[in-house]
Design goal:
Elements: H1 3-17, E1 36-41, E2 49-54, E3 65-71, H2 72-75, H3 80-95, H4 128-137
Parallel strand pairs: 1-3
Antiparallel strand pairs: 2-3
Length: 138
């Protein structure tokens, strides 16, 4: 993975680890069987990133693999802070969170909002709605 996306995901994992959400993301570059595998590449699909599950039909991060792929073709024009928010969003999917409809009001902002809305929200993500969602699942 290129340093740009490794940095974005590293910042995202640190942000999630600083919350009251259960578990943690631990970077292990030489782990032969990571629980969350992150990669980047130029993909034909139009999204900034995709998260997929391997062997976990319940949507809870309980076993096997979660794959996160950053699309360098579509994310190339994003700032570093926007890439970090996309990485935090995908880490939320690794936890099993779905997309939400949210604005930047203090009571509803969420990194799990799909699209650019979250880019203009103030404060540090993941926000309370995201953390509450993870805590409710686990």
């Amino acid at each position: 993975m290129t340093s740009t996306y490794q940095t974005a995901f590293g910042q995202a994992q640190s942000a999630w680890d600083a919350t009251s959400s259960p578990g943690y993301f631990n970077y292990e570059p030489d782990n032969g069987d990571p629980m969350v595998e992150v990669r980047d590449g130029s993909y034909s699909w139009g999204a900034w990133a995709q998260t997929s599950w391997q062997g976990c039909p319940t949507g809870l991060w309980a076993y096997n693999e979660v794959y996160i792929a950053f699309n360098t073709r579509t994310m190339g024009g994003l700032t570093s802070s926007q890439k970090k928010l996309v990485a935090e969003h995908e880490a939320g999917h690794a936890y099993g969170l779905d997309h939400v409809s949210a604005t930047c009001s203090s009571s509803s902002k969420a990194v799990m909002s799909q699209g650019e809305t979250k880019f203009s929200c103030s404060g540090t993500a993941p926000w309370a709605d995201d953390v509450n969602g993870v805590n409710a699942k686990y």
